[in-house]
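Input chain follows. Return structure tokens only.
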Amino acid sequence: MCCMWSTNIPPDIIEGTEPFEAIEAAFGIVIDDEEALELYDMTLQEAAQRISDLQRQQNIER
């Protein structure tokens, strides 16, 4: 997932960045700082599975 940010100038803080805001809007989820760090280090396939899990968890909580 880290390929969504510049590799020349990586962000100091990734939570609330444009890529994560787009993911939150597209999938109807909330990504906190801890989750953002975990997603940042995942492969695209791992992140897709985690986002699916977050959708299920957060829909149950609502």
